[in-house]
Amino acid sequence: MKYMLLLYANESAVPTTPEEQQAVAPPVWYALMEEMKAAEVLLSNTGLSPIANATTVRVRESKTLITDGPFAETHEQLGGFFLLECRDLDEALRWAEKIPHAKYGSVEVRPLWSEV
Amino acid sequence: MQSMAPWRFARCGQRFDDFGNGMTTESQIEKTFREEHGRVLAALISLLGDFELAEDALQDALVNALERWRIDGVPRNPGAWLTTVAKRRLIDRLRRSKFEDSDSVIPNSLAQEEPEMDDTLPDDRLKLMFTCCHPALALEAQVALTLHTLGGLSTPEVARAFLVAEPTMAQRLARARRKIRDAGIPYRVPPADLLPERLEALLAVLYLIFNEGYVATSDISLIRSELCDEAIRLCRILVDLLPQSAEAHGLLALMLLHDSRRDARLTSRGELILLEEQDRTLWDTGKIRQGIATLDEAIALHDPGPYQVQAAISALHAEAPNAAATDWTQIALLYDTLAKVTPSMVVEVNRAVAIAMANDLQKGLQMLLHLENDAVNFYPYHAARADLLRRTNQREAAADAYQRALDLCSNPIERDYLQRRLDEMINQT
After folding, report:
1. Interchain contact A80–B (C-beta under 8 A)
2. A5: which strand partners?
3. pLDDT tens digit string along B382-419?
4. Residues of chain B found within 8 Å of residue A96, distances taken between Cβ atoms
5. pTM (2 d.p.)
6. Is A92 part of the contact surface with chain B (CB cutoff 8 Å)?
């Protein structure tokens, strides 16, 4: 099954504790991606630039409404995703807990609509 | 097809415990349904790979069984009977729908030769238990699903047990079933690396079911005590299927020992009677024996855990011929252990009480005092303190503490007890 792992964290809260700083260090990400590739689960992934760069579009009664910022102000913001091919939810959850965001933010695991 | 009539067992006269008059009672059928439900459903899910399909098929088979068994008696192997009929009903359904929907395919597992009605049904209940108690499901859904699928309780019964409207419960069950399929929750016994944490979650669900039935409420309906019975039954199955799990044994022992006091816990008017004042002749000695034997089996596995410690505490109470003979020193030591493994306010309060009862009322009171800041809104803390103050004859302070406990407690039966104590304190001051 294909699972989307959505990475959430509070952008404005810079990691402060050594554990958090270590968790977001680039080598951690590289190692994780290598591990996913080796396990042949990684379909694609990407990181998003900060919400300061976000623009939201709504069309209401044929009128386009463009606003600055994300669609909703939330405590944690979407910062990227991993698209994985996993055997079942347990396998997807295992990968989710390895993603740095799980340590200081959260990772939401969702099966793709096509799988449902 | 005809030669495979599912009621052939009955025709051969191989009846299963009927009453000699050829009629099977409704209660006997119902009992069989309850006992077989989990096992048959678990096997069907394995076969079909789909929760909903399996439940529908079993439902069909149960309706059929109800008609047949009333006349022919309960067959010798009701589980195999139900599985075979469920499979056959499902094939019929799929064939019928094939005419309307050319896309529907009969699963490979069903398309094979008509299965023989054999006596050995694979036991997949462990898979079903772990799937129902998967942490990706909300706890309330885990509990409901476990009772419904493994316990064979109907949706209205589960709804009544948790004081929830029937449509709400039906929706909760449907949503959980759908998530199992759509989110890819695996139907299996977790691999070794996941097993400890998943087993812990599974035991917690069984204990929650038990406590839901055990907790004293003003509504002492039958279904409540049935929850205790059901939790014990499911835990027995778990112990059979996972004989190497010390904590599964520990939980079973704990529930049996608690449950042995069921008849002694309330007066005929529904008033709470604390352990110390219970009529010990009302304790169920059979359950105590079973509980202690199960605890011994647990300890022999050399893998200690919190349920075993709690069961050991309960066993010490059970073994005391009267309240005064309780081995509080041992109990206090066990609470020390428990405080290290699963620290919590309840454990701390109980530990202080055990030490007070063991030899040192003052020390117990002092220990409670240390907890005050964190326990200020925790009524068992105030109730325990009140109790120790009463024992040291500090009636006014005791009355205050009973009052604070009363202000915080919402359980009517426990409130009633606290009020009685408070009245005693005031009247004798």
Report:
1. no
2. A82, A109
3. 999 999 999 999 999 999 999 999 999 988 888 889 99
4. none
5. 0.84
6. yes
